From TrEMBL:
Organism of provenance: Cercophora scortea
Family in the record: Belongs to the histidine acid phosphatase family.
SUPFAM superfamilies in the cross-refs: Phosphoglycerate mutase-like
Domain of life from the UniProt record: Eukaryota
Name under which the protein is recorded: Histidine phosphatase superfamily
Gene Ontology terms for molecular function: phosphatase activity
Transmembrane stretches, start-end: 436-459
Cleavable signal peptide: 1-18
Length: 489
């Protein structure tokens, strides 16, 4: 009798709403590429397949009509450009990776893309309804370029004076010098494998990543008979090369006592907040609102962000260089019922962080991890923002101050800052008032923020130095020139 009563009353009891994904931000690395030791560096067919696999998984999870975590209101078959924000630094490998990723996210629409003309005929776009989704290019504020895949040393391209100095200081640290000395014999013992590319003076821990990159690419794309003294490359040796490269790059990308070194992660953090807030602020029922933001950038940016967000506390996977086609995701979710008009109450919204080391796929599903030294994998929106803002850098003025830059985009004129030469009327030399100049500076800030991404996807894919020839890069290394690598890809 009591059971019957409960069953009768059950329909009237309130049920918790199922979780709804309001939007997502994806930061993605490129796929497999040729070695940095020789130009031009290009995306390989394997690399294209890796990012396509990832794009296809994200489609299956967020976009398709039957997706388990379908983003609210996102178009399933025909891409609505206003719902998407896709960016990449100016770099052949990264740009091509973004384009291939989009083919997985929104494949050819087939008959859905057929258009009937006034004369009664029908026409389809080439390649069975291939969908044209633009990838917005972002650049470095100083060099005018983005994260150059051909460079072994990339940090100087960020233009952040203090970040460059901080990364370079690693080369004078006791830790670095000790490792340089203790690994000397190890690198010299492998000279028969790579001495045509890395002669003895360059075969040291100083070039840990570029040596690892050269050997790794060789083992992936060359037969053993094509690799000199291939028998030296035992599993243990390959593992040691990778571990040393991980140590080298992580220390160039992040240092707890010198947060400015991780400027790439700081700018990315602000970009993540901005993108998710754009989605959150829009009416939940608005179909044209931005739903998914995807950025392609450097592995150095991953490590910089991981360090700032204390991700290594959750897993050792966040310590080293992420694999090709790796991605991290920030899901904007709610368990509240969606309003028929207006935006979802921020108090009802949370953020979940997920990461896939390598291509996201059914065999490598992105996993949720806690950030900021916490234990929960899903944080309330206000808590997430509070934690991110502890290290986020989201305006040009703040970036310039943190970096110690005072020229170029950081000059008083560019920032709209009054100087002693300004007249009392508040006009600039060009007749623009200071308030208007401030607005112009804010617009410039957006471009800059989107550019710190190779060292900063926000300020533009900040990368280490401008693209130079491999010969010049090696000469710099041989001459003892230290250039930090935080924005490497």
């Amino acid at each position: 009798m009591q059971l019957v009563s409960l069953l009768v009353l059950a329909p009237s009891l309130p049920f918790a709403a199922a979780e709804t994904v309001l939007g997502a931000f994806i930061f993605h690395r490129h796929g497999d590429r040729t070695t940095k030791s020789y130009n031009p560096v290009t995306l390989t067919p394997l690399g294209a397949e890796q990012v396509f696999t990832s794009g296809s998984w994200y489609r299956d999870n967020y976009i398709s009509a039957d997706a388990p975590s379908k983003i609210n209101g996102v178009s399933s078959d025909l891409a609505v450009l206003s719902q998407l924000s896709i960016t990449s630094t100016i770099d052949n490998v990264l740009q091509n990776s973004a384009q291939v990723f989009l083919q997985g996210l929104y494949p050819p629409a087939g008959s859905l893309a057929i258009q009937k003309l006034a004369n009664g005929s029908s026409i389809n776009t080439p390649f069975n309804g291939y969908q044209y989704i633009p990838v917005n290019a972002v650049t470095s504020p100083t060099s005018g370029k983005g994260a150059e895949e051909t460079n072994g040393w990339l940090q100087a391209g960020s233009g952040c004076t203090k970040a460059i100095a901080s990364s370079n200081s690693y080369f004078q640290s006791a830790e670095y010098l000790a490792t340089l000395d203790s690994t000397k014999d190890f690198y010299q013992s492998l000279l028969p494998v790579y001495n045509a590319t890395f002669p003895s003076p360059n075969a040291t821990f100083k070039n840990a990543y570029t040596i690892y990159d050269f050997v790794h690419v060789s083992t992936v794309h060359n037969t053993t008979s094509a690799i000199p003294s291939h028998d030296l490359l035992t599993p243990s040796t390959l593992h040691q090369l990778q571990t040393l490269a991980d140590t080298h790059e992580y220390n160039l990308a992040y240092n707890a006592s010198s947060p400015i070194r991780a400027i790439a992660g700081s700018v990315l953090a602000a970009q993540i907040i901005s993108a998710l807030n754009t989605t959150l602020s829009a009416p939940a029922s608005k179909k044209s609102a931005q739903k998914l933001t995807t950025q392609f950038g450097a592995y150095g940016t991953f490590m910089a962000f991981f360090g700032l967000a204390n991700a290594p506390a959750a897993s050792k996977d966040f310590y080293g260089v992420v694999d090709y086609a790796s991605s991290m995701v920030f899901e904007l979710v709610t368990n509240a019922s969606l309003p028929t008009s207006g935006a979802v109450n921020p108090a009802d919204v949370s953020v979940r962080f997920l990461f896939a080391n390598g291509s996201a796929s059914a065999a490598n599903v992105p996993q949720a991890y806690p950030l900021f030294g916490r234990t929960e994998t899903t944080l309330k929106w206000d808590v997430f923002v509070q934690e991110m803002e502890k290290f986020a850098i989201g305006t040009t003025a703040v970036w310039c101050d943190a970096c110690g830059n005072t020229d170029g985009i950081c000059s008083p004129a560019s920032l709209g800052i009054a100087t002693a030469d300004d007249n009392e009327s508040g006009s600039s030399d060009g007749g623009v008032s200071r308030p208007v100049a401030g607005v112009i500076g804010a617009v410039v800030a957006i471009a800059v923020i989107l550019a710190v991404q190779g060292l900063v996807m926000l300020v533009g894919g900040l990368r280490l130095a401008k693209k130079e020839t491999v010969a010049l890069a090696r000469k710099a290394s041989h001459d003892g020139v230290s250039v930090s690598t935080e924005g490497r890809v």
